[in-house]
Amino acid sequence: MRPIFIMVKCELGRAYDTAEHAVDEIEEVSEIYSISGQFDLMVKCYLPEDMDVGRFVNSRIHALPHIKDTMTLITFNAFAGKS
Counting Cβ atoms within 10 Å, is residue 30 exposed (0-12), middle (13-18) or buried (19+)? Predict the structure, then answer.
């Protein structure tokens, strides 16, 4: 599984509605955070290695209600500190 992060800009006052729909409707969604700045939400998803990221974002994320814009970050490596 490969993690991706999707920054989501929502219609004013609708970020919580969008987050609720994402958690309820998209099984690949792992976590959602409210964030400050140009975007309202940061959505962490885990996709199978063979899944097309663009198709996933277009068909699943963009279909959520109240979304105005997105920016997708594709990950390459994970780094963890020593315990």
Answer: middle
Token pair recorded at residue 79 = 């780094």
Extract the tokens encoding 82.
Answer: 């020593």
7 near 61, Cβ under 8 Å? no
The per-residue pLDDT string of the chain (83 residues; one tens digit each, 9 = 90 and over) reads 999 999 999 999 999 999 999 999 999 999 999 999 999 999 999 999 999 999 999 999 999 999 999 999 999 888 887 76
